[in-house]
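Late entry, written up from scratch paper. The run itself happened at the end of the previous shift, but nothing got recorded in the book at the time, so transcribing now.
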Amino acid sequence: TNMFFSGFPFFEEGSQGGHQRQQKETDTQKLYDILGVPKDATTAQIKKSFMQHAKTHHPDRGGNSEKFKEYQQAYEILSDPNKRELYDQYGLEGVENGGGGGHEDIFDILTGGGNRGVKNKRGMQKMRGVKAELEVTLEESYLGKTAKMPFQRQRNCETCDGKGGSEVKQCTTCKGRGVQVKTIQMGPMIQQFQQECGTCKGEGKIINEKDKCKSCKGNKVYAQKSTLDIPIDKGAYDGQEIIMHGEADEAPGYMAGDLHVIVKTKPHKVYQREGADLIMKKKISLLEALTGFCFKIQTLDNTEVQIATNPGEIIFDGAKKIVKGYGMPFYGDSMSHGNLIVVFEVEFPKTGSLSEQQLKKLAEILPGPKPKQVDISKDDILMLEEFDPHTTNPNEEGGKRGEEDDEEDEKSGQTRAQCAQQ
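Output as recorded:
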C-alpha cells in the first residue's frame, strides 16, 4: 500500500490573485524551428529530425554541447503528447509550470477561474539509464571506429502516440486520480489512506477493448530492435563509459533514458595495455642476449617495424626496454602516444647441451672467477638437486607433523560419519 499526502503547489512571492500582471506574448513555434519540422509534424517525423541533428551535434562526436541540449530539449517536449499540448498553448513557461502561462493561469486553474480546462501536470521525469557492454579489440581502441551495436529498447507506440488507443476515457472508479481512498477503523480511531486504483492500475484512464491500438494492443509502448552507432574514439580504454543520450527506454509521460555503453577490451595475443603504454614479452636466446639481435613486430595499425639492441648491449633475463611513441594514443589527444615496453625472457641452454670443450671455451671468454675442479666423491660436498614442490614443508612443525594432522582429520571425519549412521 502506498501512502500519499495532498496539498497545493507553492507560489512565489507576489503571486496573489489581486496582483496585476502583464501578459506577455507566448512563443509556441521555437522548438519546431529548432528541429526544423512543421507544427503538425507526427511523432515519427519529430524523432527522425532529432536523430539526424543528434548524430551531427552529439558531444561525443565533437559537436557543440549547448546546441545538442537545444535539440534534446525540443525533442523531449515535442515527442511527449502531454508536454507538446502544453507547449502549443502556453509555450516553454507553460511546460515548466506544468500548466498555463505563468502564475495567474495556475491560480485560475486551481480556483476554477480559468476556462482553458488544462490540468496541472507534473514535470516530465526521465527513465532510468541502462548499461550495456560493448566488446572491442585492442586494434579498434588504437585506431578508433564507429561500432555497430544491436540493442532492444522500449519505445512509445508511434501509431497511437503512446496513448494506447483511439479513445481514452477517465477511470470512473477513481475519477482519473489513479488512487482510491480507503478507510480502516482500528478501535476508536479511523484511518484513511490512499492506494493504487485496481481498475486502471494507477493510470487514471481506461481504454475499451475495441478502442485499443492495434499496433501496441493498448500497451502504449513496444519493444524496438535497433542497431546503434557507438563512437569508439582513439585511445578508448577498458571500462570506459560512453553515454548515448536518449537511446534507452522511454514511456508515455517520461523522457527517454540514457544508454551507458561500457567498453570491454578483448585480450590481445601479443600486447597488454597498461594506461597508454603497451607491454609485450619477447623470448631471446643466451647468444642474442650477449651479442645483440634485431627482430620485427607488427604494430596495432598493421605496420611492420624492426627493433634492435644497441651495439655491445647485454640483455639480462627480466630486463625491460622501451620504444618511445609506439604505445596507445592518448585518449583525448590522439596525436600523442604512450610507449612500447618490451620485457625480455632469456632462454639458457639446457643441461647437457654443451660439450666439455664448449664449456672450456666459454670459461676462457666470459668474465668472472674461473671454474675449479671439484671431487664430487667427497662426503663434505653437498650437491644441488632439482626442485620438487612436493618435498616442501609448509607446516612449521615439519612435513611429518602435517601428515599426522591430516590423518587425525580423516579419523575424526570417519567417526562423525559412523555416529550419523547409528
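Residues 1-23, 99-122 have pLDDT under 50 and may be disordered.
(Scratch paper discarded after transcription.)
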